[in-house]
Amino acid sequence: MSADQDNELVEGWERLERISASLKDGKSAEPVTVRELLSWFEAKRRGANIVHIIGIALAKNNLRTEPDFAEAYIDNPIVFHLGGARQYGPLIEDTDPVDNLDDIDIDD
């Protein structure tokens, strides 16, 4: 993944970090549509790679969505909850799979 692609993904990671912190503080998080979640990661569709990347971001922040963002209708709302993060398939095409969440390096 190029540096430009990494920078584009930072917004999604940061939003999920804020949502996780809010939930840990006992606050609620506003539901968003699947389409909005995808936009945080500069995506319009749920291809295998973006599902994998968002899945890692959710897991890193100890989050899951109800319903599962990978299966819900794109304009349906999803709600964030702590715990129970799912594992999604590996990246495909010309990218290397991530075997360990600690291998993901997102700079602040």
List keywords for this structure.
108 residues, alpha+beta, three-stranded antiparallel beta sheet, 39% helix, 11% strand, globular
Written description of the protein model:
The chain has 108 residues and is α+β, with helices and mostly antiparallel strands. It has one domain. The chain is 39% helix and 11% strand. The protein is built from three helices and three strands, in the order αβααββ. α1 (3-24) packs across α2. The two termini are 17 Å apart.
Helix and strand content put the structural class at alpha+beta
The largest sheet has its strands arranged as 1-3-2
Separation, N- and C-terminal Cα atoms: 17 Å
Order of helices and strands: HEHHEE
Question: What is the count of structural domains?
Answer: 1
Helix content: 25-40%
What average pLDDT do the residues reach? Answer: 82
